[in-house]
Amino acid sequence: MFSRSRHLKQTAEAMQHAMAIIEFDMNGIILAANDRMLETLGYERAELIGQHHSSLCEDSYVNSAEYKQLWIELRQGHFREGRFRRVRKGGGPLWLRASYIPVLNRRGRPTSIIKTAMDITRRVAREQDSRGQLDAIDRSMASITFDMDGKVLEANDNFLGVMGYRREMLIGKHHSCLCDDEFRRSPRYTDFWERLRQGEFMSGQFRRIAGNGQERWLEATYNPIRDADGHLVKVIKLATDITQRVQVNHAEAESAQLAYRISSNTQQTTIEGTGIIERTVDEIHRAEEIVTHASQMIDELDRRSSGINAIISSIEAIARQTNLLAINASIEAARAGENGRGFVVVSQEVRRLSGSTSDATQQVVDTIKQLRELAQQANSRMRECMTCVNEGASMANSAGDIMKRIHQESSDVVTAVERFSSQVSTDKVS
Fold first, then answer.
1. For residue 199, which phi and psi values (nearest 5 degrees)?
2. Domains of the chain
3. Which residue from 46, 250, 313, 362 has the least number of CB within 10 angstroms?
């Protein structure tokens, strides 16, 4: 008997040290409180003894049906335990994990209530913070939960809305129903779930298929969850719908590739155009040389024509002299009478020859004159042609310089577009 009493006393002392304890009468008046309870509530003993239990509760709770029901059950001798929100001295919040234990007399009627409690305020604050974060995530993100075999356990409204499913259509289905045929049949899909079953966190941009068969792009994390014993029990996926952004990226990538092809073609065209202009300039320079040479030949022809004029002048002088001699011979033959008749015939022939020579010479003079006029006209045209050729060469050179600048600038454009295209391709979801 003595040993049993001692054991009970030791147990009570241990509880006094380990737990916050307070005692109430059946009307809720505080009869006693140990040091740990006083420390937990922030009261001195004299401040607390004689106060009603309601002084430790919020007004809204004291006035509630739940509070009244608590004391009804306690007065009936019922045991109550759970998590209770109370108020410290000064009004600060206090959360207790507590048990209300009715103390019964020999007749089984309750005479007082002993409350044992542990302060769990910090734990509750952490839980509330975590719950608040989870609620915020649930409001802002799409989430879905799978078991370790890939079966859908739960999905929030955001996920159902993004993927176009009703909850009853998705719960119990396998994750693979959200993927395209090619991916779910591939070794990559098998590896994907093997890594999750090993507890590996996965994140990235994932292509999935909605309930209507359309593609959806999700930026998501797959988070393996362990239980208290460290065993993997489920996978929670948190996702954001980035379909529109990915489609824009794809369109930008295609536009960048098109721009790159156009720029490359433009660059090639400028290279070809530059080559054509350079060859044109070479041909113009050749034409310039030919025209220059032709002009020099015409000048030489004009000079030679001047020489012919001098020869013709000499022939004309000889013809005049011959004609004069023929006239003198005729005069002398007339003086000689019958003896000069033969000489007269010769002089007449000489005069006719001289006249013919003079006529022929005049024709040559006229022809040479025409040739010189034509040569001068040709020379004038050649000079005009030279001017045009020089202007053409200058314009071709300018065009060549412009084409070279275009080529350089198009090269810069190609480089810039190539860099942009590479960047877009890097950002593009694979």
1. 90, 15
2. 2-124 (3.30.450.20), 141-241 (3.30.450.20), 252-427 (1.10.287.950)
3. 46
Check: CB of residue 239 under 8 Å from CB of residue 142.
Answer: yes
Q: What angle do CA 327, 330, 333 make, to 5 degrees?
A: 155
Three-class SS of residue 242? coil
pTM of the model: 0.54
Total residues found in the chain within this entry: 430
d(CA 17, CA 5): 19
Q: What angle do CA 125, 130, 131 make, to 5 degrees?
A: 95
- Cα–Cα dist 417/420, whole Å: 5
pLDDT digits (tens, 9 = 90+) for 273-312: 777 777 877 777 787 777 677 777 777 766 776 666 677 6
Q: DSSP class of residue 64?
A: S
**CA dist., res. 338 & res. 335, Å (int):** 9
Residue 111, helix vs strand vs coil: strand
Confidence of residue 156 (pLDDT cuts 50, 70, 90): very high
Distance of alpha carbon 118 from alpha carbon 34, whole angstroms: 13
Reported as a single tens digit per residue, the pLDDT across 51-80 is 999 999 999 999 999 999 999 999 999 999
User: What strand order describes the sheet that includes 142-146?
Assistant: 152-155, 142-146, 232-241, 215-226, 202-209
Q: CA dist 116 to 13, 14, 40, 80, Å? A: 13, 12, 12, 11
Which structure tokens are listed for 103?
């103390």
How many whole angstroms separate alpha carbon 143 and alpha carbon 177? 16
Determine the Cα–Cα distance for residues 315 and 115; give it in Å rounded to an integer: 159
Rounded CA-CA distance 430/195 in Å is: 19
Task: For residue 355, give both structure tokens.
Answer: 């006249």
Q: What are phi and psi of 376, to 5 degrees?
A: -65, -40
Q: Is 42 left (phi over 0), alpha (psi -120 to 50) or beta?
A: left
Residue 19: Cβ within 10 Å count: 19
**238-255 burial: b if 16+ Cβ within 10 Å, else e:** bbbbbbeebeebeebbee
CA dist list (Å): 49 to 31, 32, 290, 349: 6, 6, 128, 178
